[in-house]
Amino acid sequence: MRRESCAIMLGILILCCLAAGGAAAQELRITDDPADQTYPAVYGDRIVWQDNRTDDWNIFLYNLTEEAEIQITENESDRTRPAVYEDLIAWQDNRTGYWNIFLYNLTNETELFITDDTFVQTRPSIHEVRMVWEDYYEGSWNVFFYNTTTDNMEQITNETWAQVRPVIYEDRIVWQENRTEAWDIVLFNLTGDNETLITDDSADQIHPAIFDDRIVWQDNRSGDWEIYLYNLMEETELRITNETHDQTNPAIFDDRIVWQDNRSGNWDIYLYNLTTGEEVLITENVSDSIHPAIYGDLIAWQDDRNGNWDIFVYDLRKALPEADVTPKPTLRPPPAVIETPKPAPEATPTPEPEKTPAPEPTRKPRPVRTPKPTPTMTPEPTRTPEATPTMTPKPTRTPEATPTMTPEPTRTPEATPTMTPEPTPDVTPEPGMTAYAFVTAWSSAGNGDSTFNWPSGIAVDARGNIYVADTWNNRIQKFDGGGTFLRAWESEGRPFGIAVDADGNVYVADYDAASILKFDGDGNFLMRMIDHPIKPRDVAVDADGNVYLADGYNSRVEKFDGGGRFLMAWGSTGSGDGEFNLPSGIAIDASGTIYVADTGNDRIQVFDSGGEFLHAWGSAGSGDGEFAGPSGIAIDQAGNVYVTDAGNNRIQVFDGGGRFLAAWGSEGAGDGEFRSPDGITVDAAGNVYVADVSNDRIQIFAPDPAQEFAEESAEEQDTEPVPDMTQETTPDADAEPTQEETPEMTLDETEMGPDATPEPTPEPGMEAAEEQALEPAPDMTPEPDEETVP
């Protein structure tokens, strides 16, 4: 499995003179490849990263002492978010169709399959023989622990709120969680078996890192993202930075803290020495340097100065630039110890027998728990968005998903297939209900025209044009009714939901931009509708032009007029009437009644236009009228309600009162099969369009008169003929006649995922998953604004 891609990296280890004043060669360029190398981690003289030179994301290692690069993984799926300690390398891996945790031992060259289930495990952290990761199960993110020596696996948290981004040092685990209205930092001590709430603030504290008795994080209590530190021994908190710009993604080793900082207009790496109180600018160029990691005297980061992301290393043993700023400390009271007992550990897996090196990993048993299908999306959870930096264009690369989402690598776009309709769907409709037959599907994974990377939202205008929120490609694509590509345009960040009004204007729920963006049908930007913190998952427009937002991680619905003026909001976190747990889909019927897919509560809630609760239906399960993460919702002209039941990989249909009518679909990649379906819409003729997220495609279904189980005779049925969806239709008069005439787009790379986004990606995003939720590269946006999405 392991192979050396080059014994000596000639031309790769490039010495760069960085600092003013003649500092001698302290910066090393580790990679020199036209592909992207991102998310570095460092231990001793070893640097690991994720690398897409092989079309898929794989894990690479560079040994500074031996000046040798090793390709650790080589598979046709994605391996992202590596962590390293001594001879052990961990990462998140989607070769099974879900994000799992893998471990590689450099000493005996063996790979171990740590997790093996249909949930989402992302963002591993490793210290000595101990590992932690975030795990999506039963509607929330929790923290898991694994001991590589004893073979013991344990579920550390078991809550309904999210515990994400865990990191470990010796017997201490820290993570961020949102049990209150904001994100806080929590510490768990494996020896004492107790939790300590490190922060308790109305602002957000995210992205924790730990070394010994010191915990650092990024914090927005001052309005910008700043770096804070808590000393467990002294029970004191120190504000490390004090700028009017953003400082994010901190890492710590001993008395040194590094972060990325945009005070100069682009992202640079800074270092703070706790002993001397000095702040040092490590990088200073017109490109972006992000995702710093530190171990000993080495700082690693990813850098786009050469037009793609490369890995650089800075050696602190060389002369340093002149110190810049010394912040003033601020103190706060000691943290509170959380008295809630830790949940009992789950069953310990049976240790597996000794293995010999093999190309395929040995699967590691999981703790005993009742399986539940994974929900459709897990964008990385967040509360307050980070300021968007001014970024130089990034290479067009398929990024990481945030946990549930499974990002795919860039591939050559495939021609749009014409598929033969199947007359008999897998459905037994209720009397009077029309069944749906598969008509066609198109696309594959990629970032070219007509290809997708986690398409999550879909809408159809009055002319039959189809608009797709191509989430991890950060863009909107427009097609005619037959799936012929017309045009594409960039969104500001990750677009999730999309809607079209009667005039053909397009509304985009952009998660990273924390706003609803309004475009005309050709992609010309018209306005930004929201000026307060949100994390939108879906958007809908009523007949009067009012705009409704499913504000997922704020657990509410917001209403605006057509000019973007805020009108009202309702909802809070919970499972009661009018309360939500990650509302992810919203639709409005002809009378103005509002239907919300309450994803985390496995139900549909219905409200009037003033936000008054009317009724609800659904519960967790796989039977008729039961859900496993309902995410998308649409309503036809007759008032029937269509729901993408993501975790059950099917579509369910109800009348407006919630009475079950029909269902179709199962897990797979065949016609009429789904993998985490999300967005859904219905056109005037009753054709159903589904964003089949993890299959990176759009599927179309049409009413099938041959399967109608109406009480009246066939002769008495007044059924319109099924339109031939396989025929190419006429595009807009002003649309580009061919793909060749469409201007080439340069898209920002965004997170895997899972952050973010994922993330697995998973950045691993579930970030998808923020990021499979979420952050996550890859969770991935290499862009720092994405990286502040927890």
Report on this structure.
The chain is an all-beta fold and 790 residues long. Helix content is 1%, strand content 40%. The protein has a five-stranded antiparallel beta sheet with strand order 1-7-6-5-4, with no helix packed on it. It has a five-stranded antiparallel beta sheet with strand order 2-3-30-29-28, with no helix packed on it. A five-stranded mixed beta sheet has the order 8-9-10-11-32, with no helix packed on it. A hairpin with a 5-residue loop joins strand 52 (650-654) and strand 53. The two termini are 33 Å apart. Mean pLDDT is 77; it is low at 1-25, 322-332, 339-433 and 706-790.
* Percentage of residues in helical conformation: under 10%
| Total DSSP E strands | 56
Low-confidence parts lasting 5 or more residues at pLDDT below 50? Answer: 1-25, 322-332, 339-433, 706-790
- Quick one: overall form? globular
Q: Determine the N-to-C terminus distance.
A: 33 Å
Mean pLDDT metric: 77
Instruction: Report the sheet-strand fraction.
Output: 35-45%
The whole-angstrom Rg is: 25 Å
What can be said about this structure in brief?
With 790 residues, the chain is mainly beta. It starts with a strand and ends with a helix.
Blueprint (SSEs and pairs):
Elements: E1 3-6, E2 14-16, E3 27-29, E4 37-43, E5 46-54, E6 56-63, E7 68-71, E8 79-85, E9 88-93, E10 100-105, E11 110-113, E12 120-127, E13 130-137, E14 140-147, E15 152-155, E16 163-169, E17 172-177, E18 184-189, E19 194-197, E20 205-211, E21 214-219, E22 226-231, E23 236-239, E24 247-253, E25 256-261, E26 268-273, E27 278-281, E28 289-295, E29 298-303, E30 310-315, E31 336-338, E32 362-363, E33 435-442, E34 455-460, E35 466-470, E36 475-479, E37 485-490, E38 495-500, E39 506-510, E40 515-519, E41 525-528, E42 536-541, E43 547-551, E44 556-560, E45 566-570, E46 583-588, E47 594-598, E48 603-607, E49 613-617, E50 630-635, E51 641-645, E52 650-654, E53 660-664, E54 677-682, E55 688-692, E56 697-704, H1 784-787
Parallel strand pairs: 11-32
Antiparallel strand pairs: 1-7, 2-3, 3-30, 4-5, 5-6, 6-7, 8-9, 9-10, 10-11, 12-13, 13-14, 14-15, 16-17, 17-18, 18-19, 19-31, 20-21, 21-22, 22-23, 24-25, 25-26, 26-27, 28-29, 29-30, 33-56, 34-35, 35-36, 36-37, 38-39, 39-40, 40-41, 42-43, 43-44, 44-45, 46-47, 47-48, 48-49, 50-51, 51-52, 52-53, ...
